[in-house]
Structure formats: structure tokens, C-alpha cells
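Posting for a labmate who doesn't have an account.
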Amino acid sequence: MRNILVAAGLLLLAATGRAHALDVFACEPEWAALASEIGGDAVDVFTATTARQDPHQIQARPALISRLRAADLVVCTGAELEVGWMPVLLRQGANSKVQPGSPGYFEAAHSVHLLEVPTRLDRADGDVHAAGNPHIQTDPANIRAAGIALAQRMAEIDPGHAATYRDRELAFRTRLDAAMARWKTEAAPLKGMAVAVQHRSWIYLLNWLGMTEAVTLEPKPGVPPSAGYLAGVIDDLPKKNVRMILYAAYQDPKPSEFVAAKTGIPAVELPFTVGGTDQAADLIAFYDDTIKRLLAHADHH
């Protein structure tokens, strides 16, 4: 009887495929999506934030601490994006496997070239990131680079599934490369276009598509604009030939909508990450939807 139970138990483990799944704690939805692309059934991915949350402003809740405690691998953006909450989780979670400097702690920002690195650091300048702009996920080339590094790290931590990670990463990269070639053609009409942004979240997207950031609605990063400040912005926009105002799905759209109402320049909500809109269901769909939304307003004059 006991042998039958053991055999049944082993069959159940084999069927669920969860016996030795690599437990991944992803800080943001884009890294959860990337880890899932690379890991498939070999990983169990938990996402600490949603696309409707500001990744700078997360509470280190007990539920997050307990998930971190169980993790084999933490995947974050880094570049100080999570500086307000991740150190607390790491300290409270007391999981030696995923502390900074250990193989179980992965920062995607280390795989890419960071833009907007400040020449001076002063709290008076608002929420300035010392390492550079951390919003790297808006350029697919950064996801591509992070994916290569992440697959290597996953193989290092979980050598039993190394071939799976290597094969799946290559398959994903092949799909992404084909999509990037298509996006280059589709997004050609956006090249050279000037936009206003609500928060400085878009430098990687704009660089990728050859667009320019002419105006920022926030007086300083992370500081909400006053009505008086926005009045000055509104006067400025026509001179700069701004074609649209960009804001992220998680942001309060009021400043962008206020400026749009006064100027007739469309305010465009972009998903910012996987799940930011219903259409942005996975990484490739996220860029598809972003480009589609930009092109929908590109003809506006």
C-alpha cells in the first residue's frame, strides 16, 4: 500500500511540474513576463507590483516579505528604482539566497546602457536617480539584453533546467528580433516627432523610435505640477511643435488631460509595462500596443 501511495505521489509531482520550480520574485511586470518567457513550466513567478502601481512608491507589505522569503531568485530593475521598498523587503525577508551580491539577486539595469545619468545630485532636483534613468523597459533592445543575462543567471542557479532556459531565451529573442524589425518599419512615421511627457519615464522609448522630448509637465521629477506651472507649459507648447502628451497607465492623467484640453494636443496613455492596457498582455504585445497608440495620434495637427 505504501509503495502505491509513494508512486501516486511521484506521479502527482510529475504531473504538476511544480516539484522543483525555480521560485522567482519579480519586482515589476516586465521582469515577471521575461522570467516566464525564459522559464516556462520550470519557474514559478510572483510579481510584486502591477502595471497600475508607481514602481517608485510601493509599500513593503507582509505578503511581499513572505514571498521574498521563499524566493530562489529576485529579478528587479535596479538603478535605484526600487530603493524606497526593496531594501526593507530584503532585510525583513532575511533570505540569504537573494541578497545583493549573491547569484539569486539580479538587476536588469546591469545589462543595459543607462541614459540620463545626472551630473550632480541634489534632493532639491526632485526624484533624481544617481545611476541614471531606470525606466529601461520601454526599449525592446533593453529587454533583449536583460533576457540574455537573465537566462544565464537562471541556468547558474538551477543547472538542472539550464538547457530549457537557454532554448527558451533563444526562441524568445528570435521572436523579439523579428518584431523589432517590423516595429522599425511601422514606427517610421514617428521619427523626429516632438512630444511632451508628464514624467521623465520615456527616454528609452523616445531614443528607440527617434522621437524627442520637448517639454516635461512636472517641474522636477516626481513633483506634481501646479496650475500656474502648467499655464507656463501651455504657452510654451505651440512654439515647440509638440504633437502629443505622453503619460503612463499608472499615472494620474489629470495634468496631461488639463494641458490637452487647453491646447488641443492629444494626451496619450501608454501601457508603460506588460498589463498597463488590456492589449499589452505580454512583452511583444506591450510594444505593439505602445506603437499603435502613438501612431493613432501621429496624424494630429
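Reply:
Got it, the C-alpha cells are right above this. The chain has a mean pLDDT of 90.
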